[in-house]
């Protein structure tokens, strides 16, 4: 009889069961681009930001895991300054902002990752977009973006992302959200927000389990026969 612990170890090695990153909290990073007629222009700079400075609110937080957390994502409006042409173009913003809110694993040691959730409400104004993502950054190659899986956040929908990490051990894993668009004038009309709740990844269909167990059992039986010969 095959031990349950053996099956779990094999499933993790093969990447058939998605893994869940753990975190005590959410992290913020802002990428800033030049304003190209209201669209994303050339990259200007990026830096770590506080989550609240991104205009992300963590409405529900569960210590030790991001599963079940609820976030409210808004366009960024805390850097607008009408007297500064760098940040303002009259009554409008003058920089294209990409606000990233994520949980991070500093060194990947698992074979796969998943990121799932539901969009509870979506009222973002036109010109702004919101996505969920899985990123792998490579600190051994200038922090290159080696994996970038995305899903658009759509009102009333859900998302389910997964990534094979077998060839990315030791790199940085980020699971999170990004809101993109011009920095906003806080005195202007409301630009809406997105409310999203993270969930556990869907469990594979029974047929997937059956096929996996069948292959595992067959492989182990073959190994035993080879040892006896």
Write a brief structural summary.
The chain is mainly beta and 229 residues long. 15% of the residues lie in helices and 46% in strands.
Q: Which properties best describe this structure?
A:
globular, six-stranded antiparallel sheet, five-stranded antiparallel sheet, 229 residues, mainly beta, 2 domains, disordered N terminus, disordered C terminus
Commentary on this structure:
- The chain has 229 residues and is mainly beta.
- It has two domains: 1-17 and 204-229; 18-203, Sandwich (Jelly Rolls).
- The chain has two helices and 13 strands.
- The chain has a six-stranded antiparallel beta sheet, with no helix packed on it.
- Strand 9 and strand 10 form a beta hairpin.
- The longest helix is centred in the last third of the chain and has 23 residues, at 206-228.
- The radius of gyration is 21 Å and the shape is globular.
- The chain starts with a helix and ends with a helix.
């Amino acid at each position: 009889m095959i031990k349950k612990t053996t099956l779990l170890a094999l499933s993790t090695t093969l990447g058939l069961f998605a893994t869940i990153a753990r975190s005590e909290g959410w992290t913020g990073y802002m990428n800033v681009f030049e304003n190209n007629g209201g669209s994303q222009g050339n990259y200007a700079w990026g830096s770590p930001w506080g989550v609240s400075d991104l205009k992300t609110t963590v409405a529900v937080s569960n210590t030790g895991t991001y599963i079940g957390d609820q976030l409210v994502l808004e366009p960024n409006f805390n850097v607008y300054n009408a007297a500064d042409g760098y940040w303002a173009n009259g009554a409008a913003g003058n920089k294209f902002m990409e606000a990233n809110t994520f949980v991070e694993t500093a060194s990947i040691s698992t074979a796969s990752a998943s990121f799932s959730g539901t969009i509870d409400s979506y009222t973002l104004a036109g010109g702004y977009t919101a996505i969920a993502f899985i990123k792998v950054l490579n600190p051994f190659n200038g922090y290159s973006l080696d994996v970038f899986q995305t899903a658009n956040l759509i009102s009333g929908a859900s998302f389910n992302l997964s990534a094979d990490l077998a060839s990315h051990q030791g790199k940085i894993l980020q699971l999170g959200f990004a809101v993109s668009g011009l920095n906003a004038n806080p005195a202007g009309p409301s630009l809406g927000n997105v409310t999203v709740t993270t969930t556990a990844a869907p469990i594979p269909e029974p047929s997937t389990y059956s096929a996996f167990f069948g292959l595992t059992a067959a492989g182990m039986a073959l190994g035993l026969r080879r040892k006896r010969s």
